[in-house]
Amino acid sequence: MSQSSLWIPTLALASGILLAAPSWADVKVDGPWVRGTTASQKTTGAFMTLISSGDAALVAAASPAAGVVEIHEMRMDGSAMRMRQVDELALPAGKRVELNPGGYHIMMMDLRQQMRAGTKVPLLLKIRNRDGTLSEIAVTAEVTSLAGRKSAPSNQHHH
Length: 159
Ligand SMILES: [Cu+2]
Prior knowledge:
159 residues; mainly beta; Immunoglobulin-like; 10-stranded mixed beta sheet; 10 strands; disordered N terminus; disordered C terminus; binds copper (II) ion
């Protein structure tokens, strides 16, 4: 049920020109999922693993299923877990950046419909490249049950 990864072709590849340090990062999206909701629930979270080929940052996200979409961070504040909005999430070259229920996540608010398990939700991620240019990645996230998913399945490959 996992979806194939999405890659943005670089301009360098498209034009056939080899650049020593391409400014456009290829960002791979692994295992995107959205937590299911009840009929009355108006917020939920979207989670995934991002791996960028070059230094970049996730600066915004959008979805037709939600009126407001923000990048959030969950962190301990004394003895309480709190979340707050962050301007951006750094994607250092080659590093796996996890968005999960205990850390960074994409907060979907003002939901326009119930998130039903097994359905798919489109998300658009806005990435800022090292040179300041923006690129967008279309992601299709699978809605899980209300209990969600504990960890990214891509971390648990055994052969
Ligand atoms: Cu949040």
